[in-house]
Design goal:
Elements: H1 11-27, H2 32-36, E1 42-47, E2 54-61, E3 65-73, H3 77-101, E4 110-122, E5 125-135, E6 142-151, E7 156-158, H4 168-183, H5 194-202, E8 211-213, E9 217-221, E10 236-240, H6 241-244, H7 250-256, H8 274-288, E11 293-300, H9 307-317, E12 322-326, H10 328-333, H11 335-343, E13 347-350, H12 363-381, H13 397-402, E14 412-413, H14 416-419, H15 422-432, E15 437-442, H16 446-461, E16 464-466, H17 469-474
Parallel strand pairs: 3-4, 11-12, 11-15, 11-16, 12-13, 14-15
Antiparallel strand pairs: 1-2, 2-3, 4-5, 5-6, 6-7, 8-9, 9-10
Helix pairs in contact: 4-5, 9-16, 11-12, 15-16
The protein binds nickel (II) ion.
Length: 475
C-alpha cells in the first residue's frame, strides 16, 4: 500500500455495522452453522495441464471463517466420489471445530485451505497429494495430508502396500533409507525424532498411505509432528527408484522401469554421459545467445487468501517467478498461502509487520517490525527473507542502518491500488518497462489478478523473463 489517506469518515458507519453484527451474533443460536454449511461463494472449474484432469476451486468467505479448497476432477464418477468424500469430511471437521471454538474466534477469522499437487506416474496414473491446513483460533493451526494414487485407465485407486514387498527385512531397509535422508537433510536433520520414525516404519498396521510415486522416485509425505518437531513442518522425503528398487514388486518394477531406460543405469566405463553433454550445450548456448531481457514482478501487502493463489496459478502458467513482499500479520493469518508462494519457487520478501512508515519509528521499533516478520515468514515457509521493502517506499539513514537487508524499491509503479483497473495497469507497464525493471503491484486486489494475466502475456510477447528481485540483483 502506498497511500496514507485518512478514513475517518468511515468510522460512524463501521460502528453501526459492528453493532448490527454483534446483535446478530447475540441473538443467533448454535444452529447457524448447519444452515451455512453448504454455502460456497464461488466455485470454478478450470482445465489442468494434465489430460482428463480438471481443477475445482471453491471459495467461501463468511464472517467467522474462510475456506479455499482445490481438488481435481476426473471424468470417472467413482474417482471423483472418493476424492470429494475426503474434501467433504475435511470441511465438516473444520465447521465442527468452529462451532466448538466460536467463543475464541472473535479476534481472527478461522480458515481452511485444501491444496493439492499432481505428479504423473505414467500416462494413465497420477499421484494426487492433498495438503490441508486449518486454523480455528489458538496459537497453532492444524495440518495434514492425504495421498490418492489414481489409475485413470482402470478407474481405480492403487494401494501403496501393493507396490512394496512387505517384509520385516524390507521395512528395516526402508527405515534406514528414510533415516539416512532425514539425517542428511539440512532442512529436517535437527528436528527428527528417530524413535518415532522407526516405530512408524516397523508398525505392521502401517500401510504407507502417505507414500506417493513420481516419475522417478517414491516419496513419503509426513504430517506435522508425525516423526519430527513442529518446526520441520510436514516433511517430504524422496527416495529415487534406484535406491528402492529391491523393495518394489516385480510387476511394479516393470511398470516403473521402462520409462527409466533412457536415463540409463550407466556402465562404469561410460561416465561421460548425457549430463556432461548437456552442460557443454548450455555453455555454448549462453555464449552465443544475447542476454535475455529480465524484469522482477513484485507483489506487496499480501498474502491474500484467494487472490494470491490465483496469481500463483498465473505465474506458473507463464513460467514466471516473482517476489512477494508480505506483511507479517497477514502471514500470521495465512501461513499456508505464504508457504505456497515459496513452495512454487518464488521469493519471500519482508514488508514489515503492520505497514507502518519506518521513518517515524525508533530503531528498536523498526527492528521489531522487521524481525517479527522475518520470523513469521521463516516459520510459515521455511525460508527467511533476504530483502525488504519499506512501506510507502519511505526510507532514511536510520532505517538503512537498522535493517540488515537491502531495501528494494521499484522502477515501474502500476498504481494498481489506485486505478483498480487491469487495462490501466497494463498501460503503466507498457509505458515504463525496460530491461531490469522492478514492477510494483499488490496481490490483494481482484483487479490486480486480472492485470497480472495481461501483464504476463505482454511481457512474454516482448521476450522478457520474469525473475525474483534477488536473481535480478545477482547480475
Ligand atoms: Ni504496501
Amino acid at each position: 500500500m502506498k497511500r496514507k489517506k485518512s478514513r475517518h469518515y468511515l468510522l460512524p458507519f463501521l460502528g453501526i455495522l459492528g453493532f448490527i453484527c454483534l446483535a446478530l451474533f447475540l441473538f443467533s443460536d448454535n444452529s447457524v452453522f448447519s444452515t451455512e454449511k453448504n454455502i460456497i461463494n464461488n466455485k470454478e472449474t478450470t482445465q489442468s495441464a494434465y489430460p482428463g484432469v480438471d481443477i475445482v476451486t471453491e471459495i467461501t468467505d463468511e464472517k467467522l471463517y474462510s475456506m479455499a479448497i482445490h481438488y481435481p476432477e476426473f471424468k470417472e464418477t467413482f474417482l471423483n466420489e472418493q476424492i470429494q468424500q475426503y474434501v467433504s469430511w475435511s470441511k465438516a471437521e473444520f465447521l465442527k471445530q468452529i462451532d466448538q471454538n466460536r467463543k475464541h474466534l472473535r479476534e481472527a477469522q478461522a480458515s481452511l485451505y485444501i491444496l493439492f499437487d499432481i505428479y504423473p506416474i505414467d500416462k494413465d496414473m497420477y499421484s494426487i497429494v492433498f495438503d490441508m491446513e486449518s486454523y480455528v483460533g489458538g496459537a497453532n493451526g492444524q495440518q495434514n495430508s492425504k495421498v490418492f494414487l489414481v489409475d485413470v485407465k482402470n478407474n481405480s485407486f492403487l494401494q501403496q502396500i501393493e507396490i512394496i514387498i512387505d517384509s520385516e527385512q524390507n521395512r528395516d531397509k526402508l527405515y534406514h533409507l528414510l533415516l539416512h535422508e532425514f539425517k542428511y537433510s539440512e532442512k529436517y536433520k535437527e528436528y527428527l525424532f528417530q524413535d518415532f520414525l522407526e516405530e512408524w516404519v516397523k508398525d505392521k498396521n502401517n500401510h504407507f498411505s502417505n507414500m506417493f510415486l513420481t516419475e522417478d522416485a517414491i516419496v513419503f509425505k509426513f504430517d506435522k509432528y508425525q516423526v519430527t518437531a513442529g518446526a520441520a513442518g510436514s516433511p517430504e522425503i524422496s527416495l529415487p527408484f534406484e535406491k528402492v528398487r529391491e523393495l518394489i514388486t516385480d510387476d511394479w518394477q516393470k511398470k516403473l522401469y521402462p520409462n527409466k531406460q533412457d536415463h540409463g543405469i550407466r556402465e562404469p566405463g561410460e561416465a561421460t554421459g548425457p549430463n556432461e553433454q548437456l552442460d557443454s550445450d548450455k555453455d555454448i548456448e549462453e555464449s552465443i545467445l544475447p542476454k535475455k531481457k529480465r524484469v522482477a514482478l513484485t507483489f506487496d501487502d499480501g498474502p491474500h487468501n484467494t487472490n494470491t493463489l490465483k496469481i500463483l496459478e498465473l505465474l506458473d502458467k507463464y513460467n514466471a517467478k516473482a517476489t512477494f513482499f508480505m506483511l507479517g500479520n497477514r502471514v500470521d493469518f495465512y501461513p499456508n498461502i505464504a508457504k505456497e508462494i515459496v513452495a512454487r519457487g518464488h521469493e519471500p520478501g519482508n514488508h514489515t509487520w503492520s505497514h507502518k512508515d519506518l521513518t517515524t519509528l525508533s530503531k528498536e521499533d523498526i527492528n521489531l517490525e522487521i524481525e517479527r516478520t522475518n520470523k513469521a515468514i521463516q516459520k510459515a515457509t521455511g525460508k527467511e527473507p533476504t530483502v525488504y521493502r519499506p512501506p510507502y517506499g519511505s526510507i532514511n539513514n536510520q532505517v538503512r542502518e537498522a535493517v540488515n537487508m537491502p531495501p528494494i524499491l521499484w522502477t515501474v509503479d502500476t498504481e494498481d491500488w489506485k486505478s483498480r483497473d487491469a487495462n490501466k495497469v497494463l498501460k503503466e507497464v507498457q509505458k515504463a518497462v525496460k530491461d531490469d525493471s522492478i514492477i510494483l503491484m499488490h496481490d490483494i486486489h481482484n483487479s490486480t489478478v486480472e492485470a497480472v494475466e495481461l501483464v504476463l502475456k505482454f511481457l512474454a510477447k516482448e521476450g522478457y523473463e520474469c525473475v525474483t528481485v534477488s536473481e535480478l540483483n545477482a547480475n
